[in-house]
Amino acid sequence: MQITWTPEQHARRERFRRFAATTVAPGTAERDRAGVFDSKSWQALADEGFWTAHLPREYGGDGGTLWDFLAGLEGLAQGADDSGFVLSAVAHAGLLHVLCEHGTPEQRRRLLPALAGGAVGATAATEPAGGSHVAAVGTRARVHGVDDWRLTGHKAHITNAPVADHLLIVGRLDGIGARDITLFVLDRDRPGVNTGVAEDLLGQRTSPTGPIILDGVPVGPADVVGPPGDGLATLYSFLAFDRLMYGVVVAAQLEALLPVVLRRCAERRAFGVPIGEHEFIQDKVVGIRTTIESARHLAYAAADALVRGDDAYSALASCAKLAASEGAVRSTVELVQIFGHAGYDRAGGIERHLRDAVAIRIAGGTTEMQKKNIYKDVVRRYAAPVDAPAVPA
Fold this sequence. Notes:
By secondary structure, the protein is an alpha+beta fold. The chain contains twelve helices and ten strands. Strands 1, 2, 3, 4, 5, 6, 7 and 8 form an eight-stranded mixed sheet that branches. The protein starts with 6 loop residues before the first helix and ends in an 11-residue tail after the last helix. The model has no long low-confidence stretch (mean pLDDT 94).
């Protein structure tokens, strides 16, 4: 299993850490207060070649590996100090992954260069009544003619929707039987596509999130990604990739905070000594470090399984997401505690990390859904056969 970067990947990680620190990080606090997406840095990120790492050369990419992309993502997350911006990048990367793995050659030729060049992508599964239960999708493409359908539905809380140029829509396709969940890829200027304004969120405020309203949108076979009716399997592949990226991102973001934490532990005094000399403070720092390592290496394990085609991939990705999301909340609560009142004061910028962390328990599938996925995999792998001898009481 790969758990370390090559020298070239180390260089790429450091390159995008520096890029993020100098280009994305400045002004993060102001964008958080205003709830503004950093479109200028988004274009600069594309111009720097961030998205081309693992795209095929025939579509304008560098022809590298998934590990090349993840190295850049880890650097971006460590340097950006803007969790919302990175969350938007994770959502965008998911669309690229779906197109690379399941798109037609024509879809790749049309969309990959644009998405690598500064356009914004969004993947829309969630609906107002569905939440994490993506199989309950109600969006539907109804037959309008031969190879001609009209797509109607309402997507909710979609990352990047208010600014997205290209949309992957999870819907149902009439006329193909009970197994009808299908993926459609659309441009935002397609007739009948409407996106609402960005929601006013508690955290991740620099990641524009909002609804997509589909009102009789004309779609045809050229807009279908993957086999018709096979959308759920394709979507689950995307979600697993999405989840392992959260492990990489959370680990990198928390790692970037360790020097800040240690500086506070040295400067703040209690009972006549720096607070870092108290074991209860050391325990908090140890917990943060443990989250970093567990989230990161579970994500690496999931990525390795993905590259090798191991069916453990999905459950490992859920393990990475669970470790990252729960660990991020615990760690940022402790971060606020270490800083005391200064950590609770918005002027200090520490509380922003806690607000952003809360969203990670929901985005990309809730904590409860990750536990459900992991439990199902445990049962599949380890349940005793019906004819196995009983375990002694």
